[in-house]
Amino acid sequence: IGGGMVFTFLKARGLDVGSSLVEEDKLDLAKSLEAKAKEKGVKFILPTDVILADKFAADANTKTTSVEEIPDGWMGLDNGPESTKMIQKELEECKTIIWNGPMGVFEFEKFAAGTNDVAKTLAECTGKGAITII
Q: CA 37 to CA 125: how far, in whole Å?
């Protein structure tokens, strides 16, 4: 899971997500989906670190932090570098990949690395025979 959906799942786990995007009406669904994945033995991947911003803008101040340490007033706008590496490693094993959207606010350069790096990995996976649906 990447992009804005991450923070709904993190909040459903009981974590503080600052001013990150959260679909409050989907918290129960997030808990249910994660529980179903566990029951079926499906690996459920969420970022462990994120790039934060103090405002939704290209010129925002930024910092990278663990998902357990998102402070009030800050919002997650991209995967952190460790999470991106983890996701790339997991994708290497996949034979079918469905990508539902960007990992971060790629329209702002400061928050584009996660999306760009995962896109490059998807292209490599596809070149090695994976079926990739974007």
A: 24
Distance from C-alpha of 91 to C-alpha of 34, rounded to nearest angstrom: 19
For 109, counting Cβ atoms within 10 Å of its Cβ (0-12 exposed, 13-18 middle, 19+ buried), the class is: exposed
- The SS3 assignment for 76 reads strand
Q: How far is CA 40 from CA 8, 35, 44, 99, 118, in A?
A: 21, 9, 11, 21, 26
**Rounded CA separation 57/111 (Å):** 10
Percent of the chain having pLDDT more than 70?
100
Tokens 């995967």 correspond to 79
Cα angle 17, 81, 19; round to 5: 15
Any idea what DSSP says for residue 69?
A: G
Q: Torsion-angle region of residue 101: left (phi > 0), alpha (psi -120 to 50) or beta?
A: left
pTM: 0.92
